[in-house]
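Task card 7
Instruction: Convert sequence to structure tokens.
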Amino acid sequence: MIYFIAVVGAFVAGAINTLAGNGSAITLTILTELLGLPATVANGTNRVGVLTQSMAGTWAFYRNDRLNISNSGLYIALTTIGALAGIYVALIVSNESFKQVFRFLLVLMLFVILVKPKRWLREDTEARALPLWISVPVFLVLGFYGGFIQMGMGVFFLAAMVLVAHYNIIDSNAVKVAVVALYTIAAVGIFAWQGLIDWKIGGLMAIGQTAGGYLTARFAATDPRAGKWAYRILVVVVIWAIARMFGITGWLWEALL
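Output:
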């Protein structure tokens, strides 16, 4: 029964990661609280499912013509390079103090998401060629953040793609999962090298995450309602993440009990 719950939770996390981000909050909780893995091993084990779900989602978006490599290749390359640098720095510098800033960034992001929602709901991608002085620092920093801290990277990446590069939210998610797939290859290699992956549990969770990622990406690529659902899920994810970071969810849970 425990493993069934784990797979179902992983499926939900894969779906959330594909349409918004921060689904790892679910899988990490399952790995630590339900399956009893130490935090460091849970972090490494979680990357297995993140990799497979991202690869499956990338394939689904590409197969349905929602991932245009020629238009987004520069953003993918810059973010991946930044992420590899962030992963390296994370190995030698503690990022715990930097994570404290994350909750305030999320509050700001919620404001950005809720103001003028039409920017997030447009159906056509109006992608424009950004000058290098904008694209290089923006996507290198995004990638570095994702590699160094990881939390909320998907949310911030979507904001950059929608608000700066003028992609619609579905095409932005297609680029996002491709980027995550690329730099997670390196992350999995590093965690495996350090012996911080439980491959049996990671493989089990990957089944659910991969199914969730692939099916959600296929829905997003083909259903005209997907953009609205992606926006709604993004709002819910950010609000929930803010509540968790400020300890509100724990207080509510104790009150209910």
